[in-house]
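It is worth pausing here to work through a concrete case rather than discussing structure prediction in the abstract. The textbook approach is simple: state the sequence, then state the predicted structure, then interpret. We follow exactly that order.
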Amino acid sequence: MARKNRRLIAPEKKKQRRRRRLRSWLLGPLRLLGLAVVGMAIGLGAYQVAVFLRTSPALSVRQIEIRGLERTGAKELLQAVGLEEGINIFSVKVDDVRRRAERLPWIRSARAERIVPDRIVIEVKEQEAAATINLDGLYYVNTSGEVFKRALPQEGIDLPIITGISRQNYENDRLRVQVQISVLLHIIDKLRELSCLSGRSIAEMHFDELMGPSAILDPGALTVRFERDTENDAADLCRVLDQMKRYKLRARTILMSRSRGRVKATIRLEKNGTLAVSDSHKTKLVNE
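Step two, the predicted structure:
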């Protein structure tokens, strides 16, 4: 059997290898220990920085700026979000401030900002009340048709009242009711644009799925019911009122209807409940 050739290593090289192995055995743990010490120092420094940021009097809140309030009091808002001057600015969690502010009934949306070293800014957008609705008690609805708050007498806000929607229907199908409310709000907006109603206010909007929506106008408690094409009928209402003025008629109720492209108004007069019919050409009395 052939003998294997072995490479001879010089004694000096063997000594160098042994020294390198010994050095790695000694320096390896020392390196790990050094890294651990550096890590502890960094962590301790970060902790001390955090403690300083949360306790330094130089970083106390000295100014709380609130923007956008109209219906909500500043004191009420600050109590709700748990803010006061003197607290550490880095202890304020701006997301919590926003969420707590939006729980207040008049607040639609909120934003909070921390401005180092000593200022907190809270900016809110409040609900815009478009009407009240009778749901076994008066509640405000916003411009999107959402019910957002119970109406209180001391608030003194004069708005049209929406009737004809039961609380049970509201509880069972809020999205559908919101659409119904939005339709009524649209009619209110159209009526407010009419120059012939400049001296009247919309006291009530009544919802009726079978008969159609109706408005009660003050002064005089004039009831105007819209049968189908509400938007065009509202515009034709001025023509009807002009004809009534010409004939010196005072109405109690007006029913706006449309047939074959023609607008007809059936008018119940104040005097003896007599009926009158107005179309695009003239107004005539009808014997019952």
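Step three, interpretation. The domain at 59-126 is CATH 3.10.20.310 (Ubiquitin-like (UB roll)). The first strand starts at residue 63 and ends at 67.
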